## 1
Amino acid sequence: MGQRRIAILISGRGSNFVAIHEAIGRGDLDAEICCVISDRADAGGLERAREFGLEAVCLPARGIEREEYDRLLGRTLAPFDPALVCLAGFMRIVTPILLDAYPGRILNIHPSLLPSFPGLHAQRQALEYGVKVSGCTVHLADAGIDTGPILMQRAVEVRDGDTEETLSARILAEEHQVYWRAIALMLDRLAVSR
């Protein structure tokens, strides 16, 4: 396993991936992005990865059962030998096949203070429920939906008049600050446990 190598899985624009890349560039995160993989060919983050000179892989998921996709994903990841697999807006539920290939080494970021508001549309759920504080959570992925052990959280005030878009934007800004810190924590833990 590459001690400080991380694989990043995306489905969209890849803003968390870009924030991680920038943290590495600033010297705040001692890590190497070994690959960026997307389940969608139109993911903007793939183009950004190519611009940064990184390995960018499209692994389309359409029409493939989840377990079979995760087998394919595992085979794709294996040559890159990542210490961590970071889900950064990867809009697929990972199965035990991938979880078993990287036990305790798959991270996810979610736009709520888990365990509140797991799953899709977390910001909308927060607004509908009427909470005054929301935020984001980095956690280890497990077989549930946003149920794995929590590594770090950041709180975000829910303001009067917030829309799903305004709240999402403020939470995303915090995601960009917390995810790389959680990755650093996990890489340090892995280094100590070797």
## 2
Amino acid sequence: MKRHQKLVLAGAMLLILALAATQGRHVRHLRESESFYRWMLAAAVNERLFQDESGQFKDKELFEQCNAASQKLAGLVPTVAAVAKEQPKAASEPPAAEPGEVSEIGKASQEYKNDPRIWALARSNELADARASFLKLARSRQLRFAQDIQYAEAQESGVGLFNLFFGFRKVAANFIWIQVDRYWHQGENYRMVALMKTCTALDPHFVEAYLIGSWHLSYNVTAKMMDTPWPQRKWDPKYSACVGEKEKYYYVAINFLKDGIRNNPRNYKLYFDLGFAVYKQKLKDYQNAVKYLSEAIRQPHDRWVPRQLFICQELNGQYAEALAGWEDYARRFPQTSTGQEVAPRFIKRNQGHLLEKRAEEAFKAAAAATDPAEAERLRKEALKFREQAKDIFMVLGSTEGDALRMRIEATELAEQKRYMEAVAVLDKARWESAELWDDLSHRIMRYKADGNLPISLSEQKEMEREKDAGLCAGMPEQERQRVQQKNAQLN
């Protein structure tokens, strides 16, 4: 081979090596940026929704560093106002949540359409220092939400036991999940939780494992367990709640789903199961149910998801929001049975609830008014709202509409101090609607107490239980006072 040919060949080889090295650095940068981006989304969701902090991890400090550096990139991470302007929401979509001290990245993460901007931020030069800090902290296991960095490094480390195992981590996760299912069928529930966490640690994007695991914990494991009476519960600082043996499983399920959300912040099913399956169905915590169902509909979701949000808004007393949601749903899906039949029924129901609420507010304003003429005007307005509510519940029909109408009639009787008649009406009404049973029974006990009517032994015990509802041993004094104040208002 001639000398010049050798030189050309050597130059070509050097060029190939240089290109390979450049490409290798580019691939490494993308891998590290992807892990950084996933961590950033997890940290943003945690800041905005959960506010879970742990002193042994450095996620919060690093996330603050990211937000400080992002200020150099004007317009890359939009403000809440800019997001609202660029992305107008449907009528059924709730407004952006505004928890205290949420960063700009945290606010932007609320909309999945901003993900390309957050990805650009994660791989930008302006966040190079933060990205380097992320890699250092993740390798030393000082970050709670860094899931993929060890796996990414294993891919680059050549052939080895670690590489071979983690190269098949999804397969390993599937095998472990089979063992979880076997333990369930064998009744060995106590052995499931550790393996469930191992499974999702191997494959943080195994969404079905989070969903089925939380279902096992909150439904199957607790199916034959009795609710723990409030005096027998104990305050658990880990969950910031009063728990007994049964209730502890609910909060383990909640934390399991929260981990799933951090690792998969764009999967609506995790938000839905947290809001509906646990908070609504099991804990009757409608405020948190609304919170997480609102997040579910901000992700790409199935058509039936918003319906549970509207129901929980109604249960939480957010009648205007529920009404707007059902009206929008009926407009968007007029050809479906839900749009034609179900939505109109809920629309009427929430219209009636709103009128009831306005009547109560008008009565309170009348009682507080110092001007007799103004007090009389407000009282007439309240009576008008109340009559309109009764008319709507009459049109609503069915046993449900009858029960809601009779509840208003009982209220009117009680205002006239005709407590015995009010109790009789409520007693009939509660047999018409299982959904209203607890509310109507509570009103019966209150009217009996106000009218000095005989109270049964079971009612006396229920009233005693209601006084202790939400209270348990070891509860912080501030929380105890808050619950006692709430109970006093209800009674």
